[in-house]
Amino acid sequence: MTAAILYGSENLKIESVDIPRLAADEALIRVKVALTCGTDLKVWKRGYHARMITPPAVFGHELAGIVETLGSDVNGGLKVGARVVPSNSAPCNVCLFCRKGQSNLCEDLLFNNGAYAEYIRIPGRIVRQNMLVIPEHVSFQDAAMVEPLACVLRGIHETNIQPGDTTVVIGCGPIGLKFIRVLANRGVKVIALGKRPNQIRAAERFGARAALIATDLSDPAKSVREMTEGGRGADSVIEAVGTAQTWEWALQMVRRGGTVNLFGGCPRGTQVAVDPNSLHYSEITIKSTFHHTPRFIREALESVSLGEIRSSDFVNAEIPLAELPKMFEHMKHRNGEMKVAVIP
Ligand SMILES: [Zn+2]
Ligand SMILES: [Zn+2]
Distance, CA 296 to ligand 2 centroid (Å)? Predict the structure, then answer.
């Protein structure tokens, strides 16, 4: 089969490799569509990911496809030919974190990569917990949105955002836009802060009440506060960029008693300035949600199934697998601006 193999930093090759062999509890999926993701771009630049991928390795984690083969021990009603969306991870369910209901922090979280290929092997643990059958009316491409959407839905849940709230979303890449879409759809007044005019237009299209270009403002935190009731600040702020500056803005935009979700991961070694005085006396809650759990994988498929999120709003190109290395070169300087559908 043809597969994209990551060899290291900015070194991705399309090669012919053997179709993966299955253990008794595993499944082989014929990939119908794989989506690029900001995380993949980050891993491609760095050449590895401490927890997710050690090169040389098959690559890519957002996909949907058809069950080609099942190991002899796979049960649960799954059939060859079923349309499925396998998640990129599954927890162990026995470690301390899993027992405490924080399986996204599982000490033995099993990650799976290899979506950029004709076939992908799905480990037993994911087959058992995190591979869902796609409803008939949902397309493969829409179903492939489940993984990033699960992270977003969990982020909203953890931030405890209610209808009628005012929420600031910093960052209008594919993740920020998903937050905006879902929040607006659920009756939240969203103020979006982005970098480029096209992102701002997208934020407005997705339901933001106001969308601002950060670089147009001398003090974005001040400008945003002025747009909230009595200038008090927002009920909650979602930071979906991952820089020290935007983390600091987020902490300055929230009202007393509000919640900030520092959703965007900063590079190792980043230093962020916080004002302990305002943190304490304004009773600000800081959350920083990472990854997803099986519960939110299911909620994400439900959301897609209801039409809350449509891939056509996020995917702006479709390419064959052979063009993927070139596409990463192209995306290199356009961090997270687009999602591309790869058809193996
Ligand atoms: Zn992803
Ligand atoms: Zn665990």
Answer: 16
Distance, CA 109 to ligand 1 centroid (Å)?
16
Ligand (nearest to CA of 37): 1
- Rounded to an integer, what distance in angstroms lies between the CA atom of residue 146 and that of residue 293? 12
Tokens 């991870």 found at: 89
Domain that holds residue 133: 2-145+309-343
Distance 104 CA to ligand 2 centre (A): 8
CA of 165 to the centre of ligand 1 (A): 28
326 Cα–ligand 1 center, Å: 19
CA distance linking residue 228 with residue 241, whole number of Å: 22
Q: What is the pLDDT along the chain (344 residues), one digit of tens a residue?
A: 999 999 999 999 999 999 999 999 999 999 999 999 988 998 999 998 878 888 999 999 999 999 999 999 998 889 999 999 999 999 999 999 999 999 999 999 999 999 999 999 999 999 999 999 999 999 999 999 999 999 999 999 999 999 999 999 999 999 999 999 999 999 999 999 999 999 999 999 999 999 999 999 999 999 999 999 999 999 999 999 999 999 999 999 999 999 999 999 998 899 999 999 999 999 999 999 999 999 999 999 999 999 999 999 999 899 999 999 999 999 887 755 679 999 99
Spacing, Cα 281 to ligand 2 middle (Å)? 36
Q: How far is the CA of 290 from the centre of ligand 1 (A)?
A: 12
Final residue of a domain: which of 287, 317, 333? 287
pTM for the whole structure: 0.95
Q: Which ligand is nearest to the CA of 104?
A: 2
Task: Report DSSP letters for 177-219, one per residue.
Answer: HHHHHHHHHTT-EEEEEESSHHHHHHHHHTT-SEEEEGGG-S-
- Please indicate, yes or no, whether residues 161 and 273 belong to a single structural domain of this protein: yes
Q: Answer yes or no: is 297 within a domain.
A: no
